[in-house]
Amino acid sequence: MLAGNFYNITQQAQEPGQVTATIELNAAHPIFQGHFPEQQVVPGVCMMQTITEILESAVQKKMLLQKASIMKFLNMIDPVKQPLVDVTVTYKEEEAGLKVTAMLKREDKTFMKFQGIFK
């Protein structure tokens, strides 16, 4: 679990089928010693785990990624220069599971776009 250590949620709002949150990244987290010491970058797997955790908090159950049809990393996140990131997760129940669309961005800069199925 990354919440409370790698990042903290500073703001969160939920409505049926959607949750939005602003997270504050912990630039002092040990993960950045290896990714990368001179140029800290949030790993893609951490972005994906953040989406999963915010989805789980919204639906109040553990979720497992079944299929990722879109997973685009558009810009790097330097936690020193960009400590705040806005996360939007939209979800809808379908036969295959929860269809999820998510985005990590801040103002006019999009860091990641995701679409897939969770169960």
UniProtKB/TrEMBL annotation:
<dbReference type="InterPro" id="IPR054545">
    <property type="entry name" value="ApeI-like"/>
</dbReference>
<dbReference type="GO" id="GO:0016829">
    <property type="term" value="F:lyase activity"/>
</dbReference>
<dbReference type="Pfam" id="PF22818">
    <property type="entry name" value="ApeI-like"/>
</dbReference>
<feature type="domain" description="ApeI dehydratase-like">
    <location>
        <begin position="13"/>
        <end position="97"/>
    </location>
</feature>
<dbReference type="InterPro" id="IPR029069">
    <property type="entry name" value="HotDog_dom_sf"/>
</dbReference>
<protein>
    <submittedName>
        <fullName>3-hydroxyacyl-[acyl-carrier-protein] dehydratase</fullName>
    </submittedName>
</protein>
